[in-house]
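Researcher: Structure prediction, please.
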Amino acid sequence: MSFSKILTRWYSVNKRNLPWRETKNPYFIWLSEIILQQTQVKQGLPYYEAFITKFPTVFDLAKADESEVLKLWQGLGYYSRARNLHFTAKYVVDELNGAFPNTYKELLKLKGVGDYTASAIASICYDESTAVVDGNVYRVLSRCFGIDTPINSTSGIKEFKALAQELIDTKDPATFNQAIMEFGATQCRPKNPDCMFCQFQEKCIAYNEGKVDTLPVKLKKLKVKQRYFNFLVFLSEDKQTVLEKREGKGIWQNLYQFPLIETEKSLEYDAFLKLVKTHPYLKNKTFELRQYNNAPKVHKLSHQHLNTTFWTVTTESVENGIPFENITDYPVPILIGKFIEGFGGF
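Model: Predicted structure follows.
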């Protein structure tokens, strides 16, 4: 029996009941795929349901404010996905009259849509025979076929795509693509894969050669950069605080944060107090500075670690303030969101 037949037979018995598997509507499929990029199903499912409830059509998403989209996305991370999602919705509505492209090549032209997402939409919605390759697929193919080419190398990306394309069931590409992703997510897991009850046990090279724990191979990441963030949480007598919108192309673009002072290292209280006294918001003002967390909280991103300290600044008044009780109306990074949840306030 062929690889694809074994796989799709397994899928027919073991697939999870997920809402985006009940439709071929390209809007819903596109939305689910963008949300699930770098996100596990159990984490992404509530976001998917929230989005389709608030924005049931691409027209609804297109006419929303970006801040509204970012707020709904809050906690998922990789916020460029949300900005691209909103941009593409507006493009589909304004330029394509609300109709998504119906081929792999045309889907690739959408902002935020790469090879994997275009393949998923094209196969699931339009039955185009184009193979998906994501982390789950890399793992299944690498182990089953004993491939040790690094999955994040140029040659590896080409090799695995070609193999997936060779294996795909051209008569039912949608089922094949969903099956191999599901198999990687629930059976051929990164850790503790269920090899004892695997359909491919006899033919799996990694299992038979004791390489399950070493495949797939991935090139080492770049050195992680250490950054030191100090957030000033202003607390005025009339219960106002200050939030600033992050501009530019760095992390958290268009999200809100407390005024930030970035330093080259963690500073002791006295050294930081001298720095705070020069802040534009505190010119000619009396204030009280307190360190909220005793030690920096490390927030880990893909290529940088943010060593973060929150400082409360109590003062008589603040300029451009907002009521502290309204702070949850603004889209903020998860780091700020968790602080707000745990903060006692005034």
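Model: Residues 225-342 form a domain with the Nucleoside Triphosphate Pyrophosphohydrolase fold (CATH 3.90.79.10).
Researcher: Thanks, that helps.
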